[in-house]
Specification:
The chain is of the alpha+beta class and 676 residues long. It is built from 22 helices and 25 strands. A hairpin with a 2-residue loop joins strand 3 and strand 4. It binds adenosine-5'-triphosphate. The site of adenosine-5'-triphosphate has 15 residues, from helix 15.
Length: 676
Amino acid sequence: MIQKFPICFEAHLKDKIGSISESKFHIFAYETLLNSLTQACDKFVFSLRHLYTPLDKKKLSSFILINPIVEIDNSEKVEIIEGLIKGSLNRFYNLTYKPEGFPQHNWVTSISEMLKYGEFIKQPEFTGYLPHLFSTELITNNFNLLKLLEATSCENLILDFSLEAYNSPKEQAGWNNAINDLVNCLSDYGSKSNSVKYALELYRNYQDNYSENQLFHYSIKALGENTVDTIAILQTLGEIVGSKKKARRILNLIPLTLSPEQPSFIKSLDATKNVQIFKGMQWDGWEKRIGKNLEKKLIKETVKSSGFLCSLDDGSLSFPILPSNLGQFNQSYNTNRTLPNPSESIENQNSGDLTLGKDSSLSKIFETQIPKVEHLKPLHHITTYQEVVGFFQAFSPGVSSSEIEFFTTSAEEIFFKHHHLITKDTYIVGLDDNKKPITSHWTEIPHRLIAGETGAGKTNFLHWIIFQFLYVNPQRKVYIADFKGTDFLYLQNLDINVEIIDTPEDSKELVEKIYAREYVDRLNLMKKYGVSSLKLLQEEGVDIDRSLWVIDEAADIADFSYKLRESIEKRLKEYARKGRTFGIHVLYCTQRPTTEVVTKQVTDQCGEKTVFRVTPDASQRILDDTVAGTIPKNVRGRAWLDGYAGRMFVNVPKMKKPEGSTIPIEDTLWHHFISK
Ligand SMILES: Nc1ncnc2c1ncn2[C@@H]1O[C@H](COP(=O)(O)OP(=O)(O)OP(=O)(O)O)[C@@H](O)[C@H]1O
């Protein structure tokens, strides 16, 4: 049976996920939510409802509504429902399908909606319109929605976020062209005036983001019991995502509000009920108030100066004098390009434009070519995913990341307290969030994958593992492929068995050497003594121990030769198969965990994964979970561990390493090797 109606889920954030406390994953939960939903967004409108009731101030009830904009049959509906319930959202939310839909809205008496306003700016060189961007990168602190909501007097309040895929190539080509032209014209003036520089920056931002990314119609609404609260909520949100010091003076984000006596009120309420985007809400400043007045005033002034686009308020043409610009303008403008049809929802389409007068011959020539304000109008209803995610980040009911206490420890401290945990079979990975030491086991897990963005703390972790590996027996053999070339040099000054190569070219030889020296030798010895494991060989009195092969930056190998990567994978598999008994171990480390570097074979063979901060996608690929993407960028040494000790965050200690004459070996843990 064909159906077309919103699918409703009630969604409650889970209290605890493993050892992560609630506060730490809220931001990420919203990002995942949005991500999951946008994947289906070419087919569905979705709306997130945060229904707030003062009875339960500690938690927001969220409703996720999906409105298929195409007709779907029952099986597709079941697929959507099951997909969402079982998908990655499940990690964060308890989702309950609500066949009866979203609760009634009969208490709503005020609706406020957020639009991206624009502003006319006036400079001697440039008079123009700046559509506003949501500057989500400005959110440095997570915003605590609960605090905001607690300040409201509404008993019920809905925050309604809806996105709908935007697919209007003609319109998009039009305003893209308009933006390109504006950028070209302004580039000449860019360094001369701060406002022009700022306008240029904004237009470039649009040029970059709005041509490249998937776009959405959006609607961000607050529905409440009184106007004061609905405005306050949105205004605060607007300040969070829209404020930028230098822009604050010239840009406004003021929510528009509807009350029940206005005809649009019912339409807007219905749109919310039916999970649709209400397109009737417009900033009347375009045609009236600020826009019109400012424009008239500015345009007159502009005519006297050398503004680049202007019309007189009597409708006649005054094409600006653009000695250098006009040529550039003409050149840059390809007459075949399309300009948009003015948006249907704009009532008075001509009155608010910076445009050419109708009857002029110049106007006729440029009629379809000059970018007009109306071409930029749709931008105040359109957004990118990146921009809108900011709003969700802002809705973090937990503690802000600045309040979350991440701790760092020193290797010296951990070693002092817990060195009994470092044995020939075990080593300390780090401390969990309760500051308990977490260990790993060489015999149980032969190989390890270590991933993390640059600067996340991978190399430090390698130093810490190598130290412990050698601490129990400095004669153990360590092979290091270090393509940065300098990180492990100090090991050569210690009386230990370390071999370092620093180019991917040398890796091939190393792979073979390890195979012949370690693998084949061990195999022969086992045959000779008639035993089946390293441990039994040792018991026979053979002087042999584990070996460690460290690959610091596997991406360099993958880039150098896929054949080499494959041969390493083959060895990984071989050693893993015999690893428990053979004692050959690999640390496969990368800052670029793409599918070319961390192949399925690698993830399959590496029984333990230590993943420092990576993107959510990379985390999903390696761990089948986005959790390592939640580690804040500025936190070093924190990783998600999936291995011998289970699945949890670990905080790896900072390891001091010898550095020339400034940090002598005696000042580091490595002095144990001198005395041994
Ligand atoms: N556990 C930690 N605690 C505190 N600081 C750390 C920790 N680990 C690393 N750091 C610091 O973070 C910086 C980067 O560390 P490191 O070189 O280990 O990162 P990386 O992930 O290997 O980076 P890259 O991939 O660029 O080599 C260094 O200054 C280091 O001192």
